[in-house]
Amino acid sequence: MCKVKHPSHFITTKEEYELSVVLHSPSEPRHEIDTDLREKPASHHSQGKGRLIALDAARGLAVIGMFLQHFALNERNAFVAGNTTLLFVLCGGISYSIMAQRMKERGMNAAVFRSKMLARAVFVDVIGYSLILLNTQYGIILPAYAAMFVLALMLVYRSTRVLVYTTLALVLLAPPLMILGMSLLSGAYLLQDIAGGPMSALALAPAFTTGIVIGRLELTKKQVAMSLAIFGFIMLVIFQSMGTYVLPDLRLNFETWLVNVQGTSATPPDLYAIWPHNAEQPLWHMLLATAPHTASTFQTLIGLGIALLVVGLMFLVPRRMTVMLTPCAAVGRVALTMYALQFVVIWILVLLGIEYSLSDIPFGDLLIVVISLVIGWIFARLPNGPLESSMRRFDHIFSSFDSAPKPK
Q1: Residue 284 gets which letter from DSSP?
Q2: What pTM was estimated for this model as a whole?
């Protein structure tokens, strides 16, 4: 079913897409859903057949960007650092939203969706902590991603207005709360994954909730996709310009003011003191940072601008030309497997004492792009990626007991 020969292989039937996996959108078992779809009228939320390949292509670009960041980062592709994470999370929020809407439109019990998300959160969390045990030098977002699966259950069925207000509030409040969490929650690993640093669920939540909002739009409409691309481009220009021309002086003045107010401490906190006396001072100067993975307001807005631009452009590709998206969509279909694979490869190469960075090799970044596309194509020829199949079986254990549609 998933052989990469034609874009139609990435366009599942409506029944299959209803229950697509949040990370990679593979089809779900047909017996989990109402198969008598032909007798039901299409909802106004229905997305066209071109939706899946465009979303998978955007997610695939995010994964390829991560491969570049970890294996061949250089001045040409420096923009991928941090921004691919936000694109990855945004696509996850879009898929999360679509899945919830489709199940609701089908009349299925909301408990089925909740059980699926809770089961997938557990699965993704276990994979995430397994990768953390490899102790590579890169951060792992999967524990935060799993936390967002759970926390978003409070929002996914709320009104679009509530979601928009929540997203705006998170853009403003998540960075300072995340910085405070870095200080107060530094010794509590589970809470730290939820709200304690740039790789926490709180730090990435603005992108995820933005994805939930976008998932309610009819992205297959040219006007909607064009609006997203234009809005993303405007965000990118405005906040990147501020980061280049305004923030450096503002950041210097702010840091000088911080030193005068709270002083500096050369003495590290006493790790054996009672909480919160064992916490370090909050790093408030990060609020005006634009460096990758700082999760500051400006870094988040710049990354969201890029993510919206990419998603909009993917959906602007005419249906007759979607074959161009097929290679990236192949990677996007097996995103969880590809994400985990890069850290396993780094771990193995470090164990063997092999230098894995191709940054200094001519066209090393292009080589990494080709390698990631080939690996994604190989995995996409399977019915599902290895981790995607395992996650589907895992969540089916917890959701099959209540998969019947709700009585009308």
Answers
A1: G
A2: 0.85
**Residue range 120-174, pLDDT digits in tens:** 999 999 999 999 999 999 999 999 999 999 999 999 999 999 999 999 999 999 9
Please give the Cα distance from 248 to 237 (Å, whole number): 17
Q: Which of 343, 301, 313 is nearest to 139 (CA)?
A: 343
Q: Between vectors from CA 165 to CA 164 and to CA 171, what angle results, nearest 5°?
A: 90
Cβ distance 375 to 341 under 8 Å?
yes
Give which of 90, 151, 118 is closest to 394, Cα–Cα: 118
Alpha helix (H) residue ranges in 19-109: 51-71, 83-105
Alpha-carbon distance of 253 to 221, in angstroms, equals 46
Query: Contact, 10 vs 329, CB < 8 A?
Result: yes
d(CA 340, CA 376): 12
DSSP characters over 286-321: GGG--STT---HHHHHHHHHHHHHHHHHHHHS-GGG
Instruction: Give 216-255 as a DSSP string.
Output: TS-TTSHHHHHHHHHHHHHHHHHHHHHHHHTHHHHHHHHH
Q: Judge whether 119 and 395 are in contact, CB under 8 Å.
A: yes
pLDDT in tens, 107-121: 888 888 898 899 999
CA distances from 43 to 48, 160, 182, 351 (A): 11, 17, 44, 53
pLDDT tier at 238 (50, 70, 90 boundaries)?
very high
Token pair for 176: 């300072």
Angstrom distance (rounded) from CA 34 to CA 160: 27
